[in-house]
Amino acid sequence: MTAFRYQAIEGGGAPVKGVVEAENRKAALSILAERGLFPSSLESAAVEGNGEVAAPAAPTETGRPFRMGTGIRRKEITAFTREMAALLSAGIPIPQALEGLGHEEENPALKSVVLQISDSVRKGAAVSTALDEHPKLFSKLYVSMVRVGEEAGVLPKVMSDLADLLEHEDEVRSEVMTAVSYPLFVLGFGVLTVTILLGLVLPRLFGMLKDMMAVLPLPTRILLSVSEGLQNYWLWILCGGFLVAGGLRWYLRSPGGALAWDKMRLKVPLIGPVFQTAALSRFARTLGTLVKAGVSLLPALKIVENTIGNLMIANLIARVAEETRGGDSLATPLRKLRIFPNTVVQMINVGEESGKLDEMLLKVAGIEERQMRARTRTLVSLLGPVLIVVVGAMVGFMVIALLLPIFKMSRGIR
Questions:
Q1: Among candidates 363, 371, 361, which has minimal Cα distance to 287?
Q2: Which terminus of the chain faces fewer neighbouring Cβ atoms within 10 Å, N or C?
Q3: pTM of the prediction?
Q4: What is the 3-state composition of the chain as percent helix, strand, coil, each rounded to the nearest 5?
Q5: CATH classification at residue 315
Q6: Of 39, 43, 31, which is closest to residue 15 (Cα–Cα)?
């Protein structure tokens, strides 16, 4: 147990101070909240052998876990959201909850951000306004939901719903990354192996073969040309690769390039339906979460438009929002524009008529996510063997190109 010296205000407004023992800072804040105290400061203090509280110990780096880099990962934002929801549900005031989370945070970058948010809130800013000062960490969806929770007085519940949404998205993303990691490893390892063989190992063998034979077989000459090209022009090839990658990245970040890329992704055989299902599930889950939090339909559609992750579908959702503004239901423009399957539109229509649009959207999201996972597993199960065959074909061609001259020479000896 750790002792914490606190200064707080009672429910009647009288200031109090004292010491509380708890496992950590969060637990101490929870204990004070249960006692009806609102802490203005909370500092760790050591308890001496005689039972008296010593002065707070100076901070030390000993025992701090080693971290590489100062970036903030998405999962850390998710954990912060869940912890914030738990503290607010326990009745802890927002500034104290933020300060407690900030001091307990192990990532220095996230710790600085949380303490900045806490300082802004103490100075009178709304939580949503303070979060909006860090757009790279907290999306428009995040800030909008927090703002709705503040205005409706249900911020703990909204933070809990937001944490559920982020945790679910993290889970889906983790499953997809786990599924594609093996095929990517096979492809990367194969390309690396072939490059090393062509650039370092085979040139010596080719030199011997050229001295022994006047005319090499066609596969051998092809492989020899590729090997010499890598050996003599590797710097130009590397620079050209960087230039192509940079140009492609610039083009894909431009509005026209991003739109063209998103259109192409949806039209690719086998892979396109997976992207469309992923966009549909994200649309349904995000919109359902926003409607459940109390966001009006039109602002919610605007938020979804900015967070859907596909410009082509985002443009269609913008048209849906315009037609909904004219008095139509959500299902009518969705059916007219044929963005999603008829069964999905019918479920949304039933949700609107029954007054349970948020529940129906979340059900649609669950159905579509299961389909996306099933399709992803199927594609990955096919992709692994295909990549193995491709890598095997490259290595096999190299083996044949090397063995043909040897067979030809052995026939000449006979």
A1: 361
A2: C
A3: 0.62
A4: 75, 5, 20
A5: 1.20.81.30
A6: 39
Q: Residue 365 and residue 308: Cα distance in Å, rounded?
A: 13
Domain count, the chain: 2
Reported as a single tens digit per residue, the pLDDT across 342-382 is 888 888 889 888 888 888 988 888 888 888 888 877 887 78
- Calculate the alpha carbon distances from 116 to 64, 88, 121 in Å: 22, 18, 9
Choosing from 35, 56, 77, the residue where a domain stops is 56
Q: Report how far residue 194's alpha carbon sits from residue 397's, in angstroms, rounded to the nearest whole number.
A: 11
Strand locations in 242-341 (E): none
At 70-116, the pLDDT tens digits run 478 888 898 888 888 888 888 888 888 888 888 888 888 888 899 89
Can you read off the two tokens belonging to residue 362?
A: 């979340």
Q: Which of 40, 56, 72 is the last residue of a domain?
A: 56
Are 3 and 55 in contact by the 8 Å Cβ rule? The answer is no
> Whole-angstrom Cα distance, residue 126 to residue 305?
25
Q: 230 with 237: CB under 8 angstroms?
A: yes
Give the domain range for residue 200: 193-414
